[in-house]
Amino acid sequence: MLDRKTFILNTALIASALAVDRSFIFSTNKYESHRPPLAKRKFGSKAIDAEIEKVKAQIADPELAWLFENCFPNTLDTTITHFGELKGKADTFVITGDIDAMWLRDSSAQMYPYVPFVNQDAELKKLVLGVINRHARSVLIDAYANAFNYDASKKSEWYSDNTDMKMELHERKWEIDSLCYVIRLAYKYWKVSGDTSVFDAEWTDAMKTIVKTFRDQQRKNGQGPYHFQRGILPTRDNLSNGGYGATAKPVGLIYSMFRPSDDATTYPFLIPSNFFAVVSLRQLAEICSAIKNEILAADCTSLSDEVLKAIKEHAIYHHPKHGDIYAYEVDGLGNRLIIDEPNMPNLLSLTYFGAVDKTDPVYQNTRRFALSDSNPYFYKGKYAEGVGSDHTPKNYIWHLSLIARALTSDDDKEIKYCLDTIKVTHADTGFMHEGFSVNNPSKFTRKWFAWANTLFGELVLKVAHERPQLLKA
Fold first, then answer.
1. Across the chain, what does the average pLDDT equal?
2. Does pTM top 0.70 for this prediction?
């Protein structure tokens, strides 16, 4: 694997080679919109449509412009399966795409790039409010669930999991990031709109539940209430120790039984998600101070400080090649998992979430590690290089990893490389996927993955705002 300096110097050449290779396996000759017809779109926003036209006009490459037009509105076009009111408040149900359920993580990430436009579109603002309200209700149903059904009218395919299932739940995998994403969307909405009306008694009760859940999952006083098993075989969907997960020493970090990929953790202290919790708790503290709930604000700040202190004490590993880096998972007993995965939050995306500064030398070392063959999930092939996962086949990398790489880079050549690689690996579909083969992008998982689509749109918007010259080449 090339070192970072050599890689950066050669990204333009790599991108050029990929562009040449593309002609042998793809046959796109025109770029007609792949958005649904107007009458079949789930939600329409004039503000978003206007932004699409504005940004498209800045993009010289017709294929990249086409991808942006298809992907950025994909959540609005296809995944809003309910938008109305419930008990006098806005209510929105957002599916993840090809799975008819609402993930707390995915729905928050899917809506996040639209929040900057809520002051320009009253219905879009109401739509986002509906998601925030739905999140609060979902947390109060079960703070340990990662995904929810629309209501309690039918059983999930995972209803037989050995855990405390309820009819409203699609899946009950405890993941720290699910609750962090709930806070993140509400915080962004508030910062953009200045509207505090959404922070009512129900929402506040949900936030208290989140903080309590985080504290319970520090497991200072026993295993806590959460347990989960699926079947009897040891798989990535199962937890050891009777469903309570791998043994660890309580050190102030928060236990996470599953990763953002929905796969079980090897060691329960998932460091990217603990970093995310630090950020989210500080955001929640800021909101609570604004609405004069100083008791909850102080509790959030105290817990945030405790978790960050534990990260600094237990999460840094001295790598023989890359120096001090952040481990992906630890157990407080000295054991560490030294990898990075593509689903976010991951180590690569720590700066995207505001968890560390870009100048942090440990992050910079970690970034070099994650994007090298020192990371067992870094794959490089004929058409792409990037980070994959046990969740998808070997030598499959994720579009999310390429997007995260570009979102966290300050290097024009690296960002351009990521855009060019995304452009040649959508397999003539016009959309992002989950994982795809580095040697044959026509082999991919998840044809309809709205989070990746919308996040790609967010990336293009960021480039258009900060580095417009990259879109004019």
1. 93
2. yes
